Amino acid sequence: MTVALVTGAGRGIGRAVAQRLSAEGLRVALTARSEPELRDTAARCGGPTLVIPADITDPTAVEDVFGTVEAEWGPVAVLVANAGAGHSARVERTSDDDWQRMLDLNLTAPFRCVRRAVPAMRDAQQGRIVVVASVAARIGEPYLAAYTASKHGVLGLVRAAAAELAGSGVTVNAVCPGFVDTPMTEATVANIVATTGRSAAEAREMLERKQPNGRLITPEEVADAVLFCVRNGALTGQAVNVDGGAVQS
């Protein structure tokens, strides 16, 4: 069975991706900080899973996670680098710590995962790498300087790695969701409520209106796009928007 590793697999998009890959017959290794959430995800998967709690921003974590997967199942053939978080503030109110936290989680951690996955994929002459980025990787958004910079950076990583690996049988793509119905968006709603005085319903409606389809994207719709990238060996170096038509490309 093909071995997949999904980061940020405890909830939201990562959980939906893990379930979809498991339903496709892959063995799925799950990593995130919360072991209870990972075990909940594992219980929802129909096939073999491996639960590996870790803070993916720890410099030693990526090696530990990959080493555990390889010891149990062998090399990772499908990597879905999904772990991420957002931060909203005016540029002048974005601290060095806020900036660094966004880069560590949204850019450096995926880079370390890609770097660790590539040698075995090169050797096998096949592999799939999918990074869950954001439409913020495609456009600038106000009050999201650190988040947007990190997501622009990770899209650059995807494109460079795809160009480098194009003849190797390894594909590298990004999936770029808009606002998705996940705990991360719930946190965005809470921040809007706290800073503007709007109700939670009004804040959610505001986010829904940002997308031409008039609703939030579901985690399962993002998982469908990830699976498309995994299945299609001719697709590489691409940023697949899943945003209800907000960014056309």
Low-confidence stretches: none
Specify the overall morphology: globular
Number of strands: 7
Count of individual helical segments: 8
Average residue-wise pLDDT: 94
Q: What's the CATH H-level superfamily name?
A: NAD(P)-binding Rossmann-like Domain
Radius of gyration: 17 Å
Provide the spatial order of strands within the biggest beta sheet: 3-2-1-4-5-6-7
Helix content: 40-55%
Oligomer: single chain
SSE succession: EHEHEHEHEHEHHHE
How is the main sheet built?
A: 7 strands, parallel
Please tell me the total number of domains. Answer: 1
Please state roughly what percent of the residues sit in beta strands, choosing from under 5%, 5-15%, 15-25%, 25-35%, 35-45% or over 45%: 15-25%
